[in-house]
Amino acid sequence: MPYENEEEELSLLDVFNVLWHRKLLIIFLTVIFAAGSLIYAFTAPFIYRAQCRIMPPSGNSGGIAGFAAQLGGLADFIGLPTRATTGQVLVGILQGDSVVDAIIDKFNLMEELSMDIRLNARAAVLGNLEAQEDTKSGIITVAYLDKDPQKAADLANAFVDELQKKLQELSVTDATQRRTFFENQLIQAQQELTEAEDVMKNYQKDSGIIAFESQAQSLLSSISSLKNQIAAKNVQISSMQSYARSDNPKLRLAKSELEAMNKELRRLEEEQMQVDSSRNKRIISGDMLSSIGQIPELGIEYQRYVRQLRFATAKYELMLRQYENARLSEANDLSTISIIDHATPPDYKYLPRRGRICIIGTGAGGCLGIFLAFLFEHLKAVKKQRRYAHNDNEDYDDDD
Fold first, then answer.
1. DSSP 8-state symbol, 352
2. How many helices and strands (H and E) does the chain possess?
3. Are 357 and 40 in contact (CB under 8 A)?
4. Of all residues in the chain, what percent are helix, strand and coil, respectively (each to 5)?
């Protein structure tokens, strides 16, 4: 009999003898398991699988694709790989508690599953959820298993919707922060530009200066031309006095013209020295400035207001360009997923797979029968060895 000596090796013939000796046990267990698996396969409810295929967001500057890399050592601590792809990050978010809790509350799954503990409900939902990324194409497949095909499709689509909402909550990126910053700066620059425009308008209204350069040039040109004419007329009179008498008609005419020019120059200067006492401001007669002596002061003051207005305008234009660039960057960086295929109610069962169940059940019964056959033979051999050892000890005592 086999197993008479534990140190002996089990030969192929011994194995065959054990199996043949325990053939009824092996056949019985195999038949029982085969019948049980067959009954289970034909009585188990059908499970349907509805799937939805999505494409991760394109581009990864400041987006979720670089989120894990930005965490550095913290990513290893929380169990997120530092080289995680966009699809892996999305799958991780999809299986997060916030998304699963939203699904549980939306479909009232705790009551349906008759569970009072949310942790158990999460485990049950995740057990029916399948989310995986295709490493070649990067497309993510989100599938859900349920007895009702319509509910399976609704749950798969609901997971994708909740993932999209979660991404929108997490989309506060660097671009969004830049856009918010430049938006506030743009509002401030617009206020400064409005104030500078109002100050310039009030200054032009009070002083009468619309275009300082042209007005100053007009004043200087008029007075300079008149002074040049007076100087020329003085030269002419001096020259005529050298050879003409005082009663010479031409000399008298030249003196009369010189007197008229001097009178016009005095009138022009007097008009430019008028001051509005009620406002204590300089005023303009026609297109002339207040006076020649005030031209430097007015020029500096006018240029100061112009410089403030130009600075406010340049700042507003700069902030406007930066704000538009930030808006475009935020639009390109927004973490949105593209749905390739929506989940639809499947028209075929996914589980149970009857043939596989029967094969596995029959094989399990046979393996269990073989294991028990060898176990029983081993126990039988051990019992026999103990009995032989006991008899040997009794014979030794009788000899003594």
1. -
2. 14, 6
3. yes
4. 70, 10, 25
